[in-house]
């Protein structure tokens, strides 16, 4: 029984009520930049060590990385479950405010089970902040979900220049307001969102994308180099496959589904996408095959079947759901000096 009987996608809802068109984030490799990007930083975790880990590319080579901090975590959660998964590094376009955000979930905890994790899981995200990528605040647990939500999974964020705030997305399932202990049946997993300027205070959570027939998790966006042009990657939890949609109308515009799935032959989750720093129009996509990240690439993200496996034999093993951030020389030098491999 789904207590939400009439589910509309927010793209339709928002068109009427929230005329938001997002300005181009600064992470576009197509825009002329005063500070060119010189490498990539992967923020990730592992099943055995649910803490934030950094891998830094060798220059702008998306196939070759060093495990920073001698393979030790750079940030450990001291709040909530004290474990983190689904790590995402967000920053403003001026690159003066960085936020590491993550799911608050320790699957190795005594008595852990997935059913409880989706009924009475954490409704907060773990947040660390920094002005320079190397001097980080202590961890905070910030509640972003309402009391009828079962969990808050896989947060990601997009900075909006026009409103000087972040849009923060995650997935959850919702229980009837009368079911305060969340023992009954829930809605399907859907994508939720809020806005924040500082990852301290947040607007009330709302639905972003809720389908009547498909549980959805693990959404991530990719800016496509032109104002309001984005791809988004979503996991269909019925088939455990990742699919792609694209828009020319901003995050709250109309989206078109690319038929099929990125890798229809086997289960994938946890997409992390990034533009190539060297080749305009080339995009990379990391997908977790339930053991580790596998690397794909495409010059036409909207085209069906366009993602091919990258021939990256040296790509690091064991990486899980994370994010990839292009770095300026100053940022690259800072993380390499603070967290030597
Ligand atoms: C690190 O950040 C804290 C505030 O979060 C600040 O007090 C301190 O001076 C900073 N240290 C360095 C070396 O920048
Ligand atoms: C998810 O997979 C199920 C099973 O194949 C299918 O019926 C449903 O339409 C899919 N939904 C999306 C959004 O891909």
From TrEMBL:
SUPFAM superfamilies: Arabinanase/levansucrase/invertase. The keyword Aminoacyl-tRNA synthetase does not apply. The keyword Signal applies. Keywords: Hydrolase, Signal. Residues 1-23 form the signal peptide. Coiled coil: none annotated. CDD domains: GH43_Bt3655-like (cd08983). GO terms for molecular function: hydrolase activity. This is Glycoside hydrolase family 43 protein. It comes from Aureobasidium subglaciale (strain EXF-2481).
């Amino acid at each position: 029984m789904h207590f939400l009987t009439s589910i509309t996608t927010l793209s339709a809802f928002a068109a009427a009520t929230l005329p938001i068109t997002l300005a181009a984030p600064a992470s576009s490799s197509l825009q002329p930049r005063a500070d060119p990007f010189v490498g990539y930083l992967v923020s990730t975790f592992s099943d055995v060590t649910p803490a934030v880990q950094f891998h830094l590319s060798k220059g702008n080579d998306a196939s070759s990385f060093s495990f920073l901090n001698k393979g030790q975590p750079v940030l450990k959660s001291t709040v909530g479950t004290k474990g983190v998964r689904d790590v995402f590094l967000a920053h403003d376009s001026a690159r003066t405010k960085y936020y590491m955000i993550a799911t608050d979930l320790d699957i190795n905890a005594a008595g852990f089970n997935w059913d409880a994790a989706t009924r009475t899981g954490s409704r907060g995200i773990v947040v660390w902040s920094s002005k320079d990528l190397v001097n980080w605040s202590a961890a905070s647990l910030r509640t972003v979900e309402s009391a009828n939500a079962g969990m808050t999974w896989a947060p990601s964020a997009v900075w909006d220049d026009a409103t000087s705030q972040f849009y923060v997305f995650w997935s959850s399932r919702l229980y009837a307001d009368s079911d305060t202990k969340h023992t009954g049946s829930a809605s399907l997993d859907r994508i939720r969102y809020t806005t924040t300027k500082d990852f301290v205070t947040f607007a009330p959570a709302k639905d972003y994308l809720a389908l009547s027939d498909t549980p959805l998790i693990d959404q991530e966006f990719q800016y496509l180099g032109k104002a309001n042009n984005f791809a988004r990657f979503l996991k269909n939890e019925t088939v455990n496959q990742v699919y792609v949609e694209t828009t020319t109308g901003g995050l709250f515009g109309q989206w078109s589904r690319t038929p099929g799935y990125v890798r229809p032959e086997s289960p994938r989750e946890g997409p992390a996408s990034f533009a190539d720093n060297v080749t305009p129009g080339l995009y990379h996509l990391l997908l977790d095959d339930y053991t580790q990240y596998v690397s794909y690439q495409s010059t036409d993200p909207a085209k069906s079947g366009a993602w091919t496996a990258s021939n990256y034999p040296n790509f690091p093993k064991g990486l899980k759901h994370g994010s990839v951030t292009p770095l300026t020389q100053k940022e690259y030098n800072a993380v390499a000096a603070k967290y030597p491999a």
